[in-house]
Design goal:
The structure holds three protein chains of three kinds. Chain A has two domains: 268 residues, no CATH class; 66 residues, no CATH class. Helices cover 28% and strands 32% of the residues of chain A. Chain A has 13 helices and 18 strands. In chain A, helix 1 packs antiparallel against helix 2, helix 7 crosses helix 8 and helix 11 crosses helix 13. The termini of chain A are far apart. Chain B has a domain of 165 residues: P-loop containing nucleotide triphosphate hydrolases (Rossmann fold, 3-Layer(aba) Sandwich). In chain B, strand 4 and strand 5 form a beta hairpin. Chain B is built from seven helices and twelve strands. Chain B starts with a strand and ends in a 6-residue tail after the last helix. In chain B, helix 5 packs parallel to helix 6. The longest helix of chain B is centred in the last third of the chain and has 17 residues. Chain C is of the alpha/beta class. Chain C has one domain. In chain C, the strands form two sheets. In chain C, strands 1-3-5-7-9-11-13 form a seven-stranded parallel beta sheet, with no helix packed on it. A seven-stranded parallel beta sheet of chain C has the order 2-4-6-8-10-12-14, with helices on one face. Classes of the chains: A alpha/beta, B alpha/beta, C alpha/beta.
Amino acid sequence: MGLSKKLVTNLSEQKNEPGWMTDFRLQALQLFESMPLPSWGVDLKKVNFDDLTYYLKPAEQQWSSWSDVPDSIKETFESLGVPEAEKKFLAGVGAQYESEVVYKNLKEEWAKQGVIFVDTSTGLREHEKLFKTYFSTIVKPHDNKFAALNAAVWSGGSFIFIPEGVHVELPLQAYFRINSPKMGQFERTLIVAAPNSRVHYIEGCSAPVYQKGSLHSAVVEVIACAGSRVRYTTIQNWSSDVYNLVTKRAVAHEDAAVEWIDGNFGSQATMKYPCIVLQGDRARGQLISVSVAGNGQHQDVGGKIIHQGKQTTSHIISKSICRCGGVSTYRGLVTVEKTAANAKSQVQCDALLLDSRSVALSKPNIIVNRHDSDVGHEASVSTVDEEQLLYLQSRGFSVQRARAMIVNGFIDLFVQELPMEYAVEINRLIALELDPSMRFANVQHSGRSG
Amino acid sequence: MFTISNLCVAVEGKQILSNFSFSCLPGQTYLFMGPNGSGKTTLARTIIGDPFCVVQKGEIFFNKKNILDLSPDERAKFGIFLAFQYPCSIPGLTVFSFLKEAHRARFGKNFEVKQFRDLLYRYADLLKFDHSYLFRNLNEGFSGGEKKRLEMLQLLVLQPNLVILDEIDSGLDVDSATVVFDALEHARKENPIMAVLCISHHPHVVEFLKPDLVHIISDGAIVCSGGVELAQKVQRDGYNGTF
Amino acid sequence: MELTIEVMKKNQTIFLDEKTSRDVTINLYSHSSTQIYDTGHAGSVTCYFHVGSTLDYSFFISSSTQKKLNLFFVGENALAFVKGVCILQENQNASLVIEQNHSASNTESVFLMRSLLADEAVLYQKGNIIVLQKASSVAASQKSKAITLSPNVKVQMLPELDVRNKNVRCLHGAAVGSFDEKQLFYLQSRGVDGKSARQLLAQSFLTADLKKGKGQEEFIEMIHKKVQELL
């Protein structure tokens, strides 16, 4: 069924949603239909909105058994060293028995602390008042065409609420939500961190996610109340026919800190600009992002930081790698508004071109409306240094291994921010991307400090 | 053990080495001196396989194998080590990770992290490196002297059979030079067949290194050879006064 | 009004100012070398660099203006070194768009810009470095620094890059800030009063990239005078 009022209404009914949500969806649909495609960014002409499947029942999104999973997917998991249980979960096979026990214990822990971590529809159903207070307050449907689309057909995603003063030590991982599909197309995530709380949310996986449906248009809203700290880590490796268009925005209140750690691999085209509004005084924002654009891929990514409060600080590190004709665009915005006294911002965006078929573009925008700011922006484009290659080769590393080590070193600032198991996977993913023949080699990870 | 025959090398179209020939025996130390531009560094980099050093003619045999057929990493695994004149830095790659993997590539066996760490700490102490340096990014923020000492640390870890030191003494103060050459002696004791080719344009390097033979290179070939007294002559009379 | 200048020889000097035609095209023929002093030209200056040509271009903006500078490197081994100084006050409004376009190998372009903004001044600066696929071994850089003196100043910088050949060294730097407190304090601790310290810092900041040589001295004098007027 194509996109229509009927589809949206059915969707809402199937989820047993309250009337206000159905109305919200229908209004968003109208907006979506009236808005034009963006005139900048990746080429979206091939996306046929009527041709997409908008709501798949959980069973339809998964293979029914491990033996049905395509060999290429299985092989990739092998090479990346993804643990057995995770493999099956991520392939959507639903054999999550091992993780169920872990999840059950964590669920009890969270319940004791008053932490809410459920999928979005459950959040709406079981915590309606809280949900309604924050839902769509940060990313409104009229923000852009894809935010409108998501508002109309959202399904899946996480609803997280951390009560005042609670520090959640263990990262909350999207794949713990085992009662819902692993990675929906139109996920809508809402995270509310009450004053002085702490949470780290991780979504995604370095293994390619094979989707039925080629458009991924997600919305993430994060509210970091005074003194809280929210870190949101995304590692996505979409299969090569996916259009990945995401609107992620956070508002940081007084003394709050928000960190977006964003890894973009795969996909046909990605448009993603995590945004942090530093609304409160002394709010801090950080964005560390990595993107790899390979054959036929266009990664149009970056970030937006808006300084509004006093003494706010921001830091953006963006690293892109382009090879085999891939295109990488950094699109960034740093604004220091008139109210943002003593703002400090530092942006570093570097692109590594591995060959001359690939393209590195950078389109930053720096707007400063005050005299007491300290704003800096540095960008570079370079290639793998011949001297570095020779140096590593002279120590016994093959030229392919040397190249992978240099590229891994290039994104090290990003990898350092990941939990260890993800760091290992990312290093291997890079090595694989650069040299697919290493797929079956016994690749040892060189480890961090001894 | 190691023989260079009639080697002709050009860099960026310019002829640098002309019919260069040399042979060396295991366990011996050779000092190559010569004025700037004589071809000393080109020699070093040709041996390790720098693609910018284009070999037009000649052969290089190491343990009966023509190494010109091998890639730089194959030559390294074969036991050849070059201490670079200007070692480059590699952001994001720690000294520890780098050396652990290089060690495994050389010896084919994988030490446990703790075992390797103990080994590395021992060598670091020899080179007067604070252990924290081992967890810094390779050569990033290292002073010139620290970079040279790190080249020596790599030498100790990789235990090569043929060592080429490209201006290892340049920019080092007396204390650092002592540490570096003491480490070289230590490496020689651990591996007595190791041959050392030391390149320097400062004659006073003989105060630290006791070469068995001194060769002077000029215009891309060896122009004269002798013992330590040859180096001392250069120190007194300069290159012009010596040949 | 258009003006075309052909440069064939070495050591040519060109002066541009408010009275010069709006659209200037300069052809720098092979192995020529040129120095341009621009004390207030408004409009566009387009330079075509042929084999081995070099350019040293200094410009000064001190009033409301719209300026465009396009550098097209069509011949190998060409080099351009552009230094700009901008001082704006009251409600002056300046827009500067510069493009460094490399379509030939072994070419190099450097653009350095320093600005001092006071009162309600507005500066819009867009810089684009373009390296085409066929241009190998290109080194191109842009560095812009602006010091803002009052709360109503507005600055917008868009340092863009479009690189399609891997053998490049491309760098961009943009910074907006105020006087370095440490430097101010240092001068004051040596007996220099606040006002003079600011003047000194502003003058040294703005002229830091200008070589000391013939012609440059007059340029530097002009900048010093303007700073004294302003502060």
